[in-house]
Amino acid sequence: MRGRTKLGMSYQTSVDDTTPPPRVVLRSITKKDFELCTGFAFRPKVGSVIAVPTHPNESAKSTDLASVPPLLWGLLPSYGRQLRAALLHDRLCDVVNQRLRGQPQDKTVRTAAYKDRRKADDLFLEAMRDPGDGSNDEIQKRVGWFRSRLFWTGVCYGRYWRFRRFRAILMTLQVLAGVLALAAVIRLPVVSWIADRIPWHWVQDTGTLLLIWVGAFVLSVAWGRDWKVPAIALIIGVLILPVLLMTFVVQLILGLPDWVLHKISPDEQPPANFGPTAALVTTPSPAPAAAMTGPAGASM
Prior knowledge:
It is built from 8 helices and 5 strands, in the order βββββαααααααα. It is mostly helical and 300 residues long. The chain folds into 2 domains: 11-166, no CATH class; 168-264, no CATH class. The chain has a 3-stranded antiparallel sheet, with helices on one face. Strands 2-3 form a two-stranded antiparallel ribbon. The radius of gyration is 22 Å and the shape is globular.
């Protein structure tokens, strides 16, 4: 195993070139997909240097950056300090997915792919927290401790849905039960309105609801190495739930007038967009169309 560079930089220009990588340059090709125009490499604490090539490559034609559900873009944007780490994670996942295309039902292949995906998720967290050369400027490019773990929780949850669907459903039910119970305790408007109309006494009992949340949290240990995934979701879920509801309502209100206008005059008005208004549009230009902020030298 090769050690890190003299300055401690983990991001570098290429596998053989340990100089700091060029800024991240992305070309928008659809509303949510991009081509990476400037490749780079990442040197993990353990293992060989990982190359992140430009698009299209042998494993993928593009990237969607950090795969965040649209309703959460206001809290966890798809680009920012986590940009390089997200591109690294996408690359590792693309390699795993390519391996699965040939033998998607082979149990041995899927088990190996699951292990590789777990490593990719852990490297995603390591890359987000990379200190660079230790300078103040490099430290400022790190993703915050808690926010980085929210991103990590999301990709781990996605791993379960990709490879362990039944377990993902069980985890969802566990987290949902705890979050809804705590939301009812703090009287979150929509949840408390529904709870007050359910003819079961325990649904209105604060002690019982708190016990449900505590039980769901304690049950997180049953997930072994991944116990932090449901645990973090149970802690942050009650805060995210109102944001999800409000964002959904706002997107509906903003998109409805355009939907009506498109129905009335389809030749003059484009179809409605009920997604986030911050999404970039497609550009037909062959030149790089968007340079976005990311760690280790990326700039806007």
